[in-house]
Design brief:
single chain; mainly beta; eleven-stranded mixed beta sheet; six-stranded antiparallel beta sheet; disordered C terminus
């Protein structure tokens, strides 16, 4: 771009020399621009300008702060062509067989999203595999490469591709020491590089192309395999032979160390030594100064390598990107200490995620929330519940979230409750008959419909009849399993426990009590004239009504239907009535008989007892939690025949 300082006659002011701030603004506001100012000399500045953003109608501005402002024409700053992909951060650990969400974004060379990328991408999983490769089995020993009977030495060895194997990252090297040096090995250096050579026709030391993988003043005080962990791992290509160079640089000499070697058919080691006559051994080059020799042998070697092997995952192909982004669930089917995911469009654009661990899933699913709802509740009413933080904290329009702790048994004032939703901590396998709903007279409530949402982990049961005034028990068995097979961790102590359920170990049914008292608009535990007053104050409200307006059916209005619900329950309190059977001193079988003999049963429950293997435990828990003080506090009288 060119910027000129001009006078009123549109002539360049050649005596104008000043530094002027440079800015940019687009539809989204101020834009980052480089350079941030321009030095105008003789009335002119020429240079490149970079706007580090994507925006429409960008305008460049120069302002000298003295009332002289100039704007460029408007132009769009767009993203460039696809350069690579970016992964969202994957938390570690993840769990085997358990889906986790990832996001992959198509970006240009500057990291801006390429919104017109609408293709699919291949996904792969890769894990780190550590192996040891041993070269040489000979038992004879040699003074190289620990040749400390000279001040300095170099030992340059060729190891063949078929001895090392496929491409890998070499992270350490070990020599089989039979006698350790009598002194420290100063400037002990190990270098590596690829080579096309498989032997030396002329003993020659090479000086270029090396990667220093290890450097230290080394003291070896034991025999056997002595390992040197690289400060810089070496990426071996799996195709070429490998040249390894060992050297040391001392100022005196003693007895040499010795290492085992294996004879070879060709000359694969070149070596030289000196008593400080030729400088640093790392700089030695060629066939002389010092003299270079060769032998038909290789020092025995043990390499530690790290490779990346494929991991079984799903999906292996993404869905179509939308506006340059794909978000979806990935599942890993193996337990892996370290792995990463790769996105690749097979057109030269690929990207790897961060590395993460995949652990065996030993964490059991838990119940995180229980919600109730009337099938006739409208969206406005459900939205009000969510807005007032009375619904689920993250999922919308599921209904009213039941309290835990001391508020668990607060009576619910609606007269048309016919749905119960249980939200789990993770994806589970749950069926309709895994949950039974019982009221205080041991009535079993028939299910009209059941559904489970994998994305939200929410299971919903719909009942044939609304839940009237009563105390109810949700009995959910630990037949519920997560995808790893862990049983529900459902233990719950009513009026004490807080969500999520459980005791930290798989296995345990979920036994949860709640009260329904239609028309109790003020949650007092009694339907009385105060509730009528609430309805009277709210009568005529059309849309947006809530409990404190007298809406008892969740339709958002306050009308005669709400009055009828209040009228039908006037004078009632949260009470079980007198039909709850006595279980004092009864065995599990006797409890079953007492239930079956109860004249208030709506159907024969024997089949359900046979179906539900946990029902005796659930029923016992149900009875045991009706302590006399609790009943007295909730219902104003003591049912002495309960316990």
């Amino acid at each position: 771009a060119t910027i000129r300082a001009k006078n009123v006659d549109d002539e360049t002011i050649e005596v104008y020399d000043k530094t002027v701030p440079l800015g940019a603004v687009g539809d989204s506001g101020a834009l980052p621009v480089m350079p941030s100012d321009c030095v105008i000399v003789a009335g002119v500045w020429n240079g490149d300008i970079t706007i580090d953003a994507v925006d429409a109608n960008a305008v460049l501005t120069v302002d000298d702060g003295a009332g002289h402002v100039a704007n460029s024409n408007a132009f769009d700053v767009s993203y460039g062509p696809l350069d690579h992909f970016q992964w969202s951060t994957i938390n570690s650990p993840q769990y085997q067989n358990t889906p986790f969400e990832v996001t992959v974004t198509a970006v240009d060379a500057h990291g801006y999203r390429v919104i017109d990328f609408d293709d699919t991408v291949e996904l792969g999983g890769w894990m780190s595999a550590v192996e040891q490769v041993t070269v040489g089995t000979g038992t004879s020993y040699w003074i190289h490469p620990m040749c400390t009977n000279y001040h300095d030495s170099r030992t340059q060895v060729i190891y063949l591709q078929n001895e090392i194997g496929s491409a890998c990252e070499i992270t350490s090297l070990a020599l089989d020491v039979t006698a350790f040096p009598a002194q420290a090995i100063n400037e002990w250096t190990i270098r590596m590089k690829h080579t096309p050579l498989n032997s030396y026709s002329t003993a020659t030391l090479e000086s270029t192309g090396w990667t220093i993988v290890y450097h230290n003043d080394e003291t070896v005080i034991s025999t056997g395999w002595i390992n040197f962990v690289f400060s810089t791992p070496f990426d071996y290509n799996g195709t070429d032979n490998l040249m390894i160079d060992f050297s040391h640089n001392n100022s005196y000499s003693t007895n040499a160390g010795t290492c085992r070697y294996t004879p070879s058919a060709s000359r694969r080691v070149a070596f030289a030594r000196s008593n400080s006559a030729y400088g640093d051994p790392l700089d030695w080059s060629g066939t002389s100064s010092p003299n270079v020799y060769s032998e038909k042998l290789v020092p025995n070697l043990r390499l530690t390598t790290s490779t990346w092997d494929m991991v079984s995952i799903t999906p292996q192909i993404t869905d179509t990107f939308v506006d340059g982004v794909w978000t979806g669930d990935v599942t890993v089917f193996e337990e892996i200490a370290e792995m990463y995911l790769r996105a690749d469009d097979s057109s030269g654009h690929a990207a790897d995620s961060n590395t993460f661990e995949v652990m065996a899933d030993t964490i059991a699913p838990m119940v995180t929330d229980v919600l109730v709802k009337g099938n006739a509740w409208n969206d406005d009413f459900l939205g009000t519940l969510d807005a007032e933080d009375l619904g689920h904290p993250h999922l919308t329009r599921l209904g009213y979230r039941l309290l835990s702790g001391e508020g668990q048994l607060d009576a619910l004032p609606w007269g048309n409750l016919d749905q119960i939703t249980i939200v789990f901590s993770e994806n589970v396998a749950v069926a309709e008959n895994d949950m039974g709903l019982y009221s205080g007279n041991m009535q079993i409530h028939d299910v009209a419909g059941f559904g489970y949402e994998v994305a939200t982990h929410a299971a919903t049961w719909t009942f044939h009849e609304p839940l009237g005034r009563n105390l109810f028990l949700i009995a959910l068995t630990d037949a519920v399993r997560d995808v790893a097979g862990n049983a529900l961790d459902g233990e719950w102590e009513n009026s004490t426990s807080a969500f999520p359920s459980g005791n930290g170990a798989p296995g345990g049914s979920f036994s949860f009590l709640f009260n329904v008292l239609p028309g109790d608009f003020n949650f007092s535990g009694m339907v009385d004239s105060e509730d009528l007053g609430i309805w009277e104050n709210g009568i005529g409200t059309m849309g947006g009504a809530y409990l404190d307006d007298g809406d008892a059916d969740g339709d958002g209005d306050v009308d005669g239907n709400d009055f009828l619900i209040w009228q039908q329950n006037f004078g009632s309190s949260a009470s079980l009535g007198s039909v709850f059977p006595s279980f004092t001193g009864l065995s599990a079988n006797d409890k079953r008989t007492a239930c079956l003999d109860n004249p208030f049963h709506s159907r024969n429950v024997n089949q359900l007892f046979q179906r539900d293997r946990a029902i005796d435990t659930v029923m016992s828990s149900f009875v045991e939690q009706f302590t006399l003080p609790l009943l007295k506090g909730l219902h104003g009288k003591i049912f002495e025949d309960i316990l």
